From TrEMBL, chain A:
It is found in: Cell membrane. This is Branched-chain amino acid ABC transporter permease. Its main location: membrane. Belongs to the binding-protein-dependent transport system permease family. LivHM subfamily. It holds the Pfam family BPD_transp_2. Signal peptide: none annotated. The chain crosses the membrane at residues 25-42, 48-66, 73-98, 104-129, 141-161, 181-204, 233-256, 268-294, 301-322. Keywords: Amino-acid transport, Cell membrane, Membrane, Transmembrane, Transmembrane helix, Transport. The keyword Ribosomal protein does not apply. It is a multi-pass membrane protein.
From TrEMBL, chain B:
Gene3D superfamilies: ABC transporter involved in vitamin B12 uptake, BtuC (1.10.3470.10). PANTHER family: HIGH-AFFINITY BRANCHED-CHAIN AMINO ACID TRANSPORT PROTEIN BRAE, HIGH-AFFINITY BRANCHED-CHAIN AMINO ACID TRANSPORT SYSTEM PERMEASE. The keyword Transmembrane applies. GO terms for cellular component: plasma membrane. GO terms for molecular function: branched-chain amino acid transmembrane transporter activity. The keyword Transmembrane helix applies. This is Branched-chain amino acid ABC transporter permease. It is found in: Cell membrane. Keywords: Cell membrane, Membrane, Transmembrane, Transmembrane helix. The chain crosses the membrane at residues 27-44, 50-67, 101-124, 131-151, 181-201, 231-249, 269-291, 311-334. It is a multi-pass membrane protein. InterPro entries: ABC_BtuC-like (IPR037294), ABC_transp_permease (IPR001851), LivM-like (IPR043428).
From TrEMBL, chain C:
GO terms for cellular component: plasma membrane. It comes from Aeromicrobium piscarium. Keywords: ATP-binding, Nucleotide-binding, Transport. Residues 9-241 form the ABC transporter domain. Pfam families: ABC_tran, BCA_ABC_TP_C. GO terms for molecular function: ATP binding; ATP hydrolysis activity; L-isoleucine transmembrane transporter activity; L-phenylalanine transmembrane transporter activity; L-valine transmembrane transporter activity. It comes from the Bacteria. GO terms for biological process: D-alanine transmembrane transport; L-alanine transport; L-isoleucine import across plasma membrane; L-valine import across plasma membrane. This is ABC transporter ATP-binding protein. InterPro entries: AAA+_ATPase, ABC_AA/LPS_Transport, ABC_transporter-like_ATP-bd, BCA_ABC_TP_C, P-loop_NTPase. CDD domains: ABC_Mj1267_LivG_branched.
Length: 332, 352, 244
C-alpha cells in the first residue's frame, strides 16, 4: 500500500519539521498576511476580528485533537476511519450520561470516558478490522467503519432520542485576551487539547512503544519480522485514536449541544484538516486544525449560518487542486 | 501487426467458447425482470406499490454506484452529490422553465456526469485512489449540501416543491395517486440502468475499467489509458444516479437539501450494492430488494410494536441500525455479498 | 536465421537515478528489426528497471528512447504499448476477476473494438500458446507454467513489433522449459523482435543472437553470446559462480 510509505515518512520522528520546514512557515505566513488584510481592509470592527481569531484558535485546538486521532489511524493502519465523528458523539454521550445520572463532574467523567473509549477502539480494531487491514483491503475497513458510524449514531438515537441535551458546566467565568472574551471552559479545552497532542507526539517519538508504532507504519511486514506484534500495535493505535476523540469530547462537552448527529460534521472536518495538513502527519493535523478553526470563525464574520463551513470546503478544493499532498505530506 | 494468423489453424467459427453465454443469460434475465416489473403493479395494492417505488429508487442508485465503485473500483462515499444534482436540476428546470421531467432528467444526468467527471479527475490526477478518493467524494457531497442550504435560487433550507398540475400527463410525469405509471416509470429506468450495466461490463471500455481495477500497472502495459477509462465509468455512474434523484423529486413533488445531499443518501447508494455483491450485475438489485422492504417493515413494526418489543414504541433509528449491522456482517463474513457469493458457489459446482 | 535489418529500437544514454542509487547507468543499444537480444546480469543489475523505462512505466532521468523512428522518451506506458512495444512481468500480473480468455481479450480489444472479433482473436492467441484447455479457467486456479503463458499470450495479443520478456522461464520446471523455448523460437521466426531477460543460461544461449550483460546498472558487455560469455570480465563479474 503506497499510502503507508508516505504516511510513515511524515509520522516518523523529525522529518516533517526538518525536511519540510518551509511549508509550515509558508502556511503561517499566509495566515498572518490574511489576518492582517482582514484587519486593514476587512471592513469589520477590529474588536470583532480579534474575538474571531481567539475563538477560531480555541476551536482549532479541539479540531486538531480530533484530527490527530484520524491521521494516526490513517498513518499506521491505512484506514480512513469513517466512524471518527460518531466516536466523538459516543464519547460526548458517555460524559453526558456520567454527569447527569451519576453526578460526576464533567472533567472527571472525561477521565473515565478516555479508557472506556480506548477499550472501545481497541476492540473495534481487534474484532472488526484486523483481518481486513492485515489483508491490505482498503474498501473493507472503509465499509466497516461506515457501518459502525451508522450503528453508533442510530443506537444513540434510539437510547437518547433526537432532542438536543447539554452537559452541566462546572467552571464559570471568562478571561479577556487582547480585548476578546474567552470562557474558561473553552480555554481549558484548548490547552487540554494541546497538552494531549504534545504528550502524544512525545509518546510517538520517545518511547519504545512509539517506535513500534512507527515501525509498523513504515513497514508492517518488516516490523513483524523483528518481533513487533503488528495486530496489537494496530489495535493500540485505533485505541489511541479513540482516546484522542474521547478527550476532545470531554473537553468540549460543557459548551456543546448534544444530538446523535453532532459528531457527523467532525468526520468531514477532520478529513479536510488531515488532507490540508498532509495524510498521516501529526504536526500537519495540528496546523490544519488551527487554520480550519480560524477559517470558520473569521468566515462567520462575512457569511451567515452554515456559509462559513462552505469556506472550509473552498480551502479543501484549493488544496486538492494545488497541493494534494497537503502542507506536510509527501507527494505520492 | 504481422505474425500469427496465416500459418496457424484458426479457431473454428463455431467453437463453443466463442459464444458469450453470460451476455445472453444476463439479457434473458433482464427480459424476465422487465416482464415481472410490468405485471407487478397490476396485482399488488397501493401500499406495496409505494414500497416498490422506494425499492426501485434504491436499486437504480445502487446500480449507478456499482458502475464506478464496483466495476471501476473507485469507491464513492458521496453519491448523494450526483443524486442531489439530478434531483435539484430536475426540480429547478420543471419549476422555472416548465420543462418536461423527461428532458429535465436527461439534462440533470448530463450535468451530474460532468461534475462527477471533474471531481474524479481532480482526485485521480495524483493517483489519490482508495480511501482518499472515498472521503474526497464524501466531502464534495457535504459541500453540495451546504451549497443547497445557502443558495437563494434553490430556496435554501426550504427546498423546492414541484407544481401539481391537476391533470394526468405522461409528458409531465404526473398521474392520479396510485396510478401504475408511478411504478412503471422507475421500473423502466431500472431496466435501462441494468441494461447499460450488462452491455458496459462486456464492452471494451467496461472490460478496460475492470482490468484497471484488478491491476493498474498491467492494464497500462496493455495499452489502456487508465485515467480515461475510469472517467468513462464515473460518467455513466453519475448519470444513472442522477436519474434516480430526478425521479425521486418527481415522485415526492419535493426536494430539499437533506433529501438530496444528506449522508444517508450516499449510504443508500452503497448499502444495496454491498449487500447484494459489489461489482456484480444483479447485486445492487438483490440488495435493494432486501433493504427497501426491510426499512419499511421496521418502520411499520415501530409504529405498532408487539408487546415484547414495546420499549421500541416511537423510537427512531432502528431501521438504519439494522442495515448497519447487516453491512458489517456482510463485509466480514460474505465479502462478495449475497448474490456474488451464491454465484461463485454455483460456478464452483459447475466446474467440478 | 534472421536478416539483420535497420535499427527498430534505439536506446541512447539511458539512465535512471533514485535517491542515492543509479539503477540504470548510461545504457545505449540499437535493437535491429527481427533481432533476439538476450539480457543477463546478477539480481539488482537493473534489467527490470531498464524494461520499465523502455515500456514507459518510469521516466528516465537521462537519455532517449527512439522506437521505429519516433522519440518515445517520457511517453506513458499505455501509449508505448499501443505503439507496438509491449512488456511482460516477471511476477505474473493476471486480472484476477477475469478468466484466461477475458484476460487476453483486454489485449485484443486494443486493435479490435468489436467484442465478438476480439474474442475470436483472443482465442486464436490462446490456442497458439497452447492454453486452449484453460480458456475459461480463472487465473487463481492456474499452475505457474500456464500463468507464464497467459502473460505471454496477453502481450502477443497486442500484435507487438517488439516484445520485452521478463523471465518467462523462471519458476518453470526443466520439462516445461523446452516447449516454452520452442514457442519463443517460433514467434521470433515469424518476425517478432524480442528483448529477453533470463537467468537460465542454456535458454539464453539457445535463443539470443546478441547478448547484453548488465552489472550494477551499467553495460558490462554486448555482443555475440558465446564470445561475451567467455569474456573474462564477464566471467569474473557475474558468470563465474552461475555458469560453471
Amino acid at each position: 500500500m503506497p499510502q503507508h510509505a508516505n504516511a510513515a515518512e511524515s509520522t516518523s520522528a523529525a522529518s516533517p519539521w526538518r525536511q519540510q520546514a518551509r511549508s509550515p512557515l509558508l502556511a503561517a505566513g499566509i495566515v498572518i498576511l490574511a489576518l492582517a488584510a482582514i484587519y486593514l481592509f476587512g471592513n469589520r470592527d477590529s474588536g470583532l476580528v480579534t474575538q474571531s481569531i481567539v475563538s477560531g484558535l480555541l476551536l482549532g485546538g479541539v479540531y486538531a485533537l480530533v484530527s490527530i486521532g484520524l491521521t494516526l489511524i490513517f498513518g499506521v493502519l491505512g484506514v480512513v476511519n469513517f466512524a471518527h465523528g460518531a466516536m466523538l458523539t459516543l464519547a460526548l454521550y458517555f460524559v453526558y450520561a456520567l454527569t447527569t445520572s451519576a453526578g460526576i463532574p464533567v472533567y472527571l467523567s472525561t477521565l473515565i470516558a478516555v479508557p472506556l473509549m480506548f477499550g472501545f477502539g481497541f476492540l473495534v480494531q481487534r474484532l472488526l478490522l484486523n483481518k481486513l487491514t492485515t489483508e491490505g483491503s482498503h474498501e473493507g475497513p472503509l465499509l466497516i467503519t461506515l457501518g459502525l458510524q451508522l450503528l453508533i449514531v442510530n443506537t444513540l438515537l434510539m437510547v437518547f432520542g433526537g432532542r438536543p441535551v447539554s452537559v452541566p458546566g462546572s467552571v464559570d467565568g471568562s478571561l479577556r485576551v487582547f480585548g476578546a472574551v474567552a470562557t474558561y471552559e473553552r480555554l481549558i479545552a484548548f490547552f487540554g487539547a494541546l497538552l494531549v497532542a504534545a504528550l502524544l507526539t512525545l509518546l510517538l517519538r520517545r518511547t519504545s512503544f512509539g517506535m513500534s508504532i512507527r515501525s509498523v507504519a513504515s513497514n508492517a511486514q518488516g516490523a513483524a519480522l523483528v518481533g513487533v506484534n503488528v495486530g496489537r500495535v494496530y489495535a493500540m493505535t485505533f485505541g489511541i485514536g479513540a482516546a484522542c476523540v474521547a478527550v476532545a469530547g470531554g473537553l468540549t462537552a460543557p459548551f456543546t449541544s448534544l444530538t446523535p448527529t453532532v459528531g457527523e460534521s467532525f468526520t468531514v472536518l477532520a478529513f479536510v484538516i488531515v488532507v490540508l495538513g498532509g495524510l498521516g502527519s501529526v504536526v500537519g493535523a495540528i496546523t490544519g486544525g488551527l487554520i480550519i478553526g480560524l477559517v470558520q470563525t473569521i468566515g462567520a464574520l462575512y457569511l451567515p449560518g452554515t456559509g462559513a463551513l462552505l469556506l472550509v470546503f473552498v480551502v479543501f478544493v484549493l488544496v486538492l487542486l494545488f497541493r494534494p499532498q497537503g502542507l506536510f505530506g509527501v507527494r505520492p | 501487426m504481422k505474425q500469427t494468423e496465416t500459418e496457424l489453424p484458426r479457431v473454428a467459427a463455431d467453437d463453443p467458447r466463442l459464444r458469450d453465454t453470460d451476455l445472453r443469460n444476463s439479457l434473458i434475465t433482464l427480459g424476465v425482470l422487465a416482464v415481472v416489473l410490468a405485471v407487478l403493479p397490476l396485482v399488488v395494492n397501493e401500499r406495496i406499490e409505494s414500497i416498490l417505488v422506494l425499492t426501485l429508487i434504491f436499486a437504480i442508485m445502487g446500480v449507478g454506484w456499482n458502475l464506478m465503485s464496483g466495476f471501476g473500483g473507485l469507491f464513492s462515499f458521496g453519491h448523494a452529490a450526483f443524486f442531489g444534482v439530478g434531483a435539484y436540476t430536475n426540480a429547478y428546470l420543471v419549476i422555472e422553465y416548465e420543462l418536461s421531467p423527461w428532458i429535465a432528467m436527461i439534462i440533470g444526468a448530463v450535468f451530474a456526469a460532468a461534475i462527477g467527471t471533474f471531481i474524479a479527475f481532480l482526485c485521480l490526477r495524483y493517483k489519490l485512489a482508495g480511501a482518499y478518493f472515498a472521503l474526497a467524494t464524501f466531502a464534495f457531497a457535504q459541500m453540495f449540501l451546504l451549497l443547497a442550504q445557502n443558495l437563494e435560487f434553490l430556496n435554501k433550507t426550504d427546498g423546492l416543491s414541484l407544481p401539481i398540475l391537476g391533470e394526468e400527463s405522461f409528458w409531465h410525469m404526473q398521474f392520479r395517486q396510485g396510478n401504475d405509471w408511478y411504478v412503471w416509470i422507475p421500473s423502466g429506468l431500472l431496466v435501462i440502468a441494468l441494461g447499460i450495466t450488462i452491455l458496459y461490463a462486456r464492452s471494451r471500455p467496461g472490460r478496460y475499467v475492470q482490468a484497471a481495477r484488478d491491476d493498474e500497472v498491467a492494464a497500462a502495459s496493455l495499452g489502456i489509458n487508465v485515467m480515461r477509462t475510469r472517467l468513462v465509468a464515473v460518467m455513466l455512474s453519475c448519470a444513472v444516479t442522477a436519474i434516480a434523484g430526478a425521479y425521486y423529486a418527481q415522485y415526492y413533488f419535493f426536494v430539499g437539501p437533506e433529501q438530496a445531499f444528506g449522508t444517508h443518501v450516499s449510504v443508500q447508494a452503497i448499502v444495496p450494492a454491498v449487500l447484494g455483491g459489489i461489482g456484480t450485475i444483479w447485486g445492487p438489485l438483490v440488495g435493494a430488494l432486501i433493504v427497501g422492504p426491510l426499512a419499511e417493515y421496521i418502520k411499520e413494526l415501530l409504529r405498532d410494536p408487539p408487546s415484547y418489543l414495546e420499549f421500541l414504541q416511537g423510537v427512531s433509528g432502528l431501521d438504519v441500525a439494522v442495515y448497519a449491522v447487516l453491512l458489517i456482517v456482510i463485509v466480514l463474513f460474505m465479502r462478495k455479498g449475497i448474490y456474488g457469493t451464491l454465484k461463485d458457489k454455483i460456478t464452483e459446482r459447475k466446474n467440478q | 536465421m534472421s536478416e539483420r535489418g535497420t535499427s527498430l529500437l534505439s536506446i541512447e544514454g539511458l539512465t535512471k537515478r533514485f535517491a542515492g542509487l543509479t539503477a540504470v547507468d548510461d545504457i545505449g543499444i540499437e535493437v535491429a528489426e527481427h533481432e533476439f537480444l538476450g539480457i543477463v546480469g546478477p539480481n539488482g543489475a537493473g534489467k527490470t528497471t531498464l524494461f520499465s523505462l523502455i515500456a514507459g512505466e518510469q521516466r528516465p532521468t537521462e537519455g532517449r528512447i527512439v522506437f521505429d523512428g519516433t522519440d518515445i522518451t517520457g511517453w506513458p506506458a499505455d501509449r508505448v504499448a499501443k505503439a507496438g512495444l509491449v512488456r511482460t512481468f516477471q511476477l505474473m500480473r493476471p486480472f484476477e476477476s477475469m478468466n484466461v480468455l477475458e484476460n487476453v481479450m483486454i489485449a485484443t480489444h486494443q486493435h479490435t473494438p468489436a467484442p465478438h472479433a476480439a474474442r475470436h482473436k483472443a482465442l486464436d492467441v490462446i490456442e497458439r500458446v497452447q492454453l486452449g484447455r484453460y480458456a475459461t479457467a480463472m487465473p487463481a486456479s492456474l499452475p505457474t507454467a500456464a500463468l507464464k503463458r497467459l502473460e505471454l499470450a496477453r502481450a502477443l495479443a497486442l500484435d507487438p513489433q517488439v516484445i520485452l520478456l521478463d523471465e518467462v522461464l523462471a519458476g518453470l520446471v526443466p520439462a516445461e522449459r523446452a516447449p516454452m523455448i520452442e514457442l519463443l523460437r517460433t514467434l521470433h521466426g515469424e518476425g517478432l523482435t524480442v528483448m529477453f531477460i533470463e537467468h537460465i543460461m542454456a535458454a539464453v544461449l539457445a535463443l539470443s543472437e546478441r547478448l547484453l550483460v548488465m552489472h550494477e546498472g551499467a553495460q558490462l558487455a554486448l555482443g555475440d553470446p558465446r564470445e561475451v560469455t567467455e569474456d573474462p570480465v564477464v566471467v569474473e563479474a557475474y558468470l563465474g559462480e552461475d555458469y560453471a
